[in-house]
Amino acid sequence: MKLLLTNDDGIDAPGLAALAQVAAKFGALTWVAPHTHLSGCGHRVTTDGPIRLMRKDEQRWAIDGTPADCVRVGLARMVPDADWVLSGINHGGNLGADVYHSGTVAAVREAALHGRPGVAFSHYRKRSVEIDWDRACRWLAPILADLLKVPGTPGTFWNVNLPSLTSDEPEPRVVRCPLESGPLPLSFRHDGDLMHYDGNYHQRPRGVGSDVDVCFGGNIAVTLVQIG
């Protein structure tokens, strides 16, 4: 199996290294990721200028472009016969409405547009809890094994969010669930003629059984997302 890996936190992000550690058990890896942090860039693509390629080693390229660019370049040049596109593990949740502005999610949406199955992985994080990447890998391995067995459904991709748990909390369950339909809070702080967003991510809507509700409740949210 050939796996194309990317993210929006940059080629050197610990979450991408963690994803590669797990994914290497299932196939041959090709990394094509932004050379710098591009969180929240959405589904932006570069069509009006050059995209610089920076080869790190035989399997790893950094590019001066967005996560969606990474998938486009990767499928066009590095691994045109990729079986799956995997994105993440993002440092922070990508739940509900986040899928529309997340670069992590945009990467696998771009893959779906080209007929390739994909999974976006993110790790929700409470401000007081650091991410344990070794534990994230343990959670991720059986989920990835299960998803890679499922034939890709055209026009869809998977979105997976790991919960933020302290070491003494119970191990999470894996829950298939829909996206939360509620928006992020609308809250801004004025500074002269400047506006600073100060909405509380942790107080966003969380309908019962939605991905936000599942992940905030301490479990792993797995969602099949339809494009279009």
Highlighted features:
alpha/beta; two-stranded antiparallel ribbon; 24% helix; 25% strand
Main sheet strand line-up: 3-4-2-1-5-6-7-11-8
- Helix content estimate: 10-25%
Low-confidence stretches: none
Summed up, the helix count is 5
| Proportion in β-strands | 25-35%
Pairing-aware structural class of the strands and helices? Answer: alpha/beta
Shape: globular
Per DSSP E runs of 2 or more residues, the count of β-strands stands at: 11
Largest sheet: 9 strands, mixed
Could you tell me the mean pLDDT?
Answer: 95
Question: Which sequence of SSEs, written as H and E, runs from N to C?
Answer: EHEEEHEHEHEEEEHE
CA radius of gyration: 17 Å
Gap between N and C termini: 28 Å
Account of the protein in words:
This protein is α/β, with parallel strands linked by helices and 228 residues long. Helix content is 24%, strand content 25%. It has five helices and eleven strands; from the N terminus they run βαβββαβαβαββββαβ. The strands form two sheets. The protein has a nine-stranded mixed β-sheet, with helices on both faces. The two termini are 28 Å apart. The mean pLDDT is 95.
